[in-house]
Amino acid sequence: MATIIGGLTSSHIPAVGNAIAKGLQDDPYWKPFFDGYPPIRDWLGDHKPDVAINIYNDHGLGFFLDKMPTFAIGAAHEYRNEDEGWGIPQLPPFPGDPKLSWHIIESMVAQEFDITSCQELAVDHGFTVPMQLFWPGAPNNPDMPRVVPISANTVQHPIPTLKRALDFGKALRRALLSYPEDIKVVILGTGGLSHQLDGTRAGFINKDFDQYCMEKIVTAPEELTKITRMELVEKAGAQGTEFLMWMMMRGALGDKVTPIHANYHIPISNTGAGTMMLECAA
Amino acid sequence: MNLAEFDHHAPIDGTTIFDGTQAMKGYALNKMCYSFNAAEARETYKADPEAYYDRFGLNEAQKQACRDKNVLDLIAAGGNIYYLAKFAGIFHLDVQDVGAQQTGMTKDAFKEKLRKAGE
Distance (Å) from the C-alpha of residue B72 to the closest C-alpha of chain A? Predict the structure, then answer.
């Protein structure tokens, strides 16, 4: 069976992609952010997962408003990173694991999560930036795991509830634990934390709420399900709803996790940037 | 059916909830912005913006908001920020330019506001 070894969270801000392309890791603005990653890379180097399930939200590359899946699962041999329109450098394709994808899809639908399967899915910065942060040079990193992208809608309301996101993760866990092959899997929840790009409230960041979320997601994720979606918009900002990806990730880790590393820094671009490494009980 | 008859959300200051009402209102505008993922589309737009607006069926309010590059007007006309970012990208406006414009601040003042949120 598949073993879920842990969960990683990261913001996926496009400006980070540009900073990596320009080699700004030691620049004073960027250093406090990039310093959050080496301990996680060391952990990944020690554990070498075979597969990374990257839970992210598309920002208008893979999906448009004509058809907007609430939950979409990639089922492709590879995932292309395409032009998003505003100049972030494009990366070569990421290798998929369609056999595992279809196992997850079968299992999720059997568990009554009626997802959208995607045999083609262009992946944007929400997917690629965390991959670059965790596996420098991605996808051309020698330890690069195969990937299964999972995208949840935070573009258009109604977005999923926090409870549904956590439950999705729990169902994903059951799907993985029923996979017959012995593979090591790491789960990524990317996006957030608090930020708002639009409206006269643009530039809203909420440090207290971000820190509350980073604490509770370790010890009491169920408590976070009491937050309504409109409360999430109010407290995390209109785009802070990306925290749903963290909830999905957390659900897949099981009840007990050990926090190995965390970093939080304001601001990166317009965002409170959070990074975490949670290890699953062996 | 008039979707505006239904109010699904308590108001949050300075925030437009991009829901079904907004998504229907802004469909043409957002579809045009989505096309800007392709470099070729960006060039076609730059060569003749007015023809490009008509091709996607933008209404007058949407066209004017595009001509003015006014983000609050674009949102009021149904624009979604993730798609509008692709429009802004054509003019090399980043999210701090967009934030500064919407809040009536200079870019430096807006960046300082962001920095202060970390204190």
Answer: 6
